[in-house]
Amino acid sequence: MTRTVEDEHGYDVVVIGAGPVGENVVDRVRAGGLTAAIVESELIGGECSYWACMPSKALLRPAIARSDARKVAGLRESVYGPLDAMEVFTHRDDVVGHWKDDGQIDWLDSIGVRVLRGHGRLLGPRRVEVTSPEGERHVLTARHAVVVCTGTRALLPELPGLPGAHPWTSREATSADRVPERLVVVGGGVVGVEMATAWQALGAKVTLLVRGGGLLPRMEPFLGEHVAAALVTRGADIRTGAAVSAVVRDGGTGPVTVVLEGGDHVEGDEVLFATGRRPRTEDIGLETVGLTPGSWLDVDDSLRVTGTDWLYAVGDVNHRALMTHQGKYQARIAGAAIAARAHGDDSLDAGRWGAHAATADHAAVPQVVFSDPEAASVGLTLAEAERAGHRVRAVDLDMRQVAGADLYAQGYRGHARMVVDLEREVVLGAAFVGPGIGELLHSATVAVVGEVPIARLWHAVPAYPTLSEAWLRLLEAYRG
Ligand SMILES: Cc1cc2nc3c(=O)[nH]c(=O)nc-3n(C[C@H](O)[C@H](O)[C@H](O)COP(=O)(O)OP(=O)(O)OC[C@H]3O[C@@H](n4cnc5c(N)ncnc54)[C@H](O)[C@@H]3O)c2cc1C
Q1: Looking at the domain covering 373-479, what would its CATH class be?
Q2: Nearest protein Cα to ligand 1, atom 51
Q3: Residue 57 Cα: closest atom of ligand 1
Q4: Which of 26, 42, 53 to mutate to test the pocket of ligand 1 (most atoms within 8 A of CB)?
Q5: For residue 204, pLDDT beyond 90
Q6: Which of 104, 140, 155, 368 can pair with 438 through a Cys bridge, CB separation 3.0 to 4.6 Å?
Q7: Is residue 361 lining ligand 1, measured as CB closer than 6 Å?
Q8: Per-domain residue ranges for the chain?
Q9: Predicted local confidence at residue 298, as pLDDT
Q10: For residues 383 and 291, what is the distance between their CA atoms, to the nearest angstrom?
Q11: Which atom of ligand 1 is nearest to the CA of 118?
Q12: Residue 23, by phi and psi: left (phi above 0), alpha (psi -120 to 50) or beta?
């Protein structure tokens, strides 16, 4: 018979889900003088540490470094030949700590946070039941807040034959230790593009199936165009307007056939479905507090769930911006807001949000796609700015006009755009594509978030000859 233990003392805050976001929430509420417990059903560190950001970037780094080196005279001759896939996997395994979370546990212990292993589920307002792997039940009470940080899992479409075909999701694509000869990637968003880049560099023949008209559809169109052209040059087959209607893999092993609407088909040795994410909220007791299981959780700018005064949802699960840095930003805000409310500060509830508002989520989200070439953007695209009713002008730049570009990589191909609000003469958005361009993004984020007037940006002088001189050329192009 299973045992239920009722926690006598309770905690100020109980967090469900110890991904990067949950960890940051407990760190912040502890710093705000509150007690906290955190519940984790898999590995502390979450999707990001073990099956997403970290392993994917470990797979991509050698691909991008080799590609950059091949564009430098005198160096390129030393870097022909294939990547050593086994060495890449060994390094990836080190980066993810061999899928063990001991280090994270030590850190949570060191800041005095109680860690409970098991599945967390709401039992009604401020109460959380934790079912341990052994089936023991533990009930926790939160004096001030429960914070849901349960993240997302891969969304697989309902297609005939798909479950029996054992498709890769992002988890297999980041943890596999064998290079398939032929990899079919379904989906042209960030995960599809990054994994196509990594596995192509590791030696797979990649076919990328995209339902829409191009890659990276949420960014400025020229980013996806540059990335697609480079993938094709390296041998990928990209098919746009390709909707999958079925998947066939006899007996669940051997080659897999991906059938497209219209009857065409593609064969591979593995198929990766990178077709979106869904919230991990189907079994966390949302029905006990009047919310719908399986739904994304709507929040206000302090990350408090709409219609409650004690439940928060932070990170991927609120569907605001599915990226680690943005979730951790929200965690800092939510942690401070929870602590402020717990200490009787009613300024938020009186509408004086001050620093306790995740405003960057709305119009200043930075994102780097670690493709080859890299693609990066922050703020609004031209189309989004126009839809939002701004009077704007897009200023474009061929990165070959930047002196540092050809030094960085001979024959540099890249493009930059800034979207300027003509009423206020501030930058609403910026987008870049090209080798090494990801590191340029934070300067754009500062300009967008700081609403730095164009007239002041002239005095932010980029060093010669760096890629950052893109800013100078963009300003010159704006002035005309
Ligand atoms: C392939 C890939 C690459 C990515 N690369 C990047 C990148 O380079 N940069 C970037 O910023 N973002 C990247 N992302 C996105 C990033 O992984 C997520 O934004 C981030 O992991 C979200 O953090 P989170 O804490 O909200 O959720 P998660 O990391 O998903 O963590 C949620 C945690 O909650 C636990 N949990 C769930 N339900 C329960 C429950 N009922 N009880 C107890 N525990 C529970 C889970 O086990 C998990 O540990 C990538 C995503 C993918 C798929």
Answers
A1: alpha beta
A2: 52
A3: 8
A4: 53
A5: yes
A6: 368
A7: no
A8: 4-45+101-153+279-361, 163-275, 373-479
A9: 98
A10: 34
A11: 43
A12: alpha
Ligand 1 pocket check for 56: Cβ under 6 Å: yes
Segment 349-365 mean pLDDT:
85
Q: Are β-strands 205-209 and 182-186 bridged in parallel, bridged antiparallel, or unpaired?
A: parallel
| 462 ligand 1 Cβ < 6 A | no
Helix, coil or strand: residue 116: strand
Q: Is the CB of 379 under 6 A from ligand 1?
A: no
- At residue 173, the pLDDT reads 98
Domain 4-45+101-153+279-361 has CATH 3.50.50.60: yes
pTM for this entry: 0.97
Select from 261, 196, 203, 264 the least CA-distant residue to 232.
Answer: 196
Write down the pLDDT at residue 175: 98
Which two tokens mark 231? 């993938």
Show the tokens assigned to 333.
């805000």
Tens-digit pLDDT profile for residues 461-476: 999 999 999 999 999 9
- Among 13, 49, 15, which residue's Cα sits nearest to residue 314? 15
- Residue 174 CA: nearest ligand 1 atom is 1
CB distance 416 to ligand 1 below 6 Å: no
Please give the mean pLDDT across all residues of the chain.
96
Cβ-in-10-Å burial (0-12, 13-18, 19+) of 254 comes to: exposed
pLDDT tens-digit map of 287-339: 999 999 999 999 999 999 999 999 999 999 999 999 999 999 999 999 999 99
Q: Does the CB atom of residue 46 touch ligand 1 within 6 A?
A: yes
Residues linked to residue 433 through DSSP beta bridges, in sequence order: 375, 415
The Cα–Cα gap between 443 and 476 comes to 17
Q: Residues 228, 197: contact at Cβ < 8 Å?
A: no
User: CA 294 to CA 280: how far, in whole Å?
Assistant: 7
pLDDT tens, position by position, 52-76: 999 999 999 999 999 999 999 999 9
450 Cα to the center of ligand 1, angstroms: 29
Query: Long-range contacts for 27-31 (Cβ within 8 Å, ≥24 apart)?
Result: 27/111, 27/331, 27/335, 28/331, 28/332, 28/334, 28/335, 28/336, 28/339, 29/145, 29/335, 29/338, 29/339, 30/111, 30/112, 30/113, 31/335, 31/339
